[in-house]
User: Fold this.
Amino acid sequence: MPRVIVDNLSLEQVYSVTVQLPSSKLEFGSIKKGSMKIIYYAINQSDGTYNYAVEYADGEKVSGECGYITSNEIGKSFLLTLRPERVITCNS
Assistant:
């Protein structure tokens, strides 16, 4: 099954991370600094982009989109990396 990985390399606590897929939504909850969480998702997705929203412990929100998703991508890994100074990168 395909998966989304959120790796918190930032120096701060993250209150919540949400990744919106074309056909579903993944909610990661809080992620401590230096921690990683993984959620697997159904392969039956419409074509589209990964849209993310990150809320930091102080209430600031950062959102964006990156990467592309299509149906039946068996074994795909999408990595969302939270870096210092609230820089967010992704790669699949």
Notes: The radius of gyration is 13 Å.
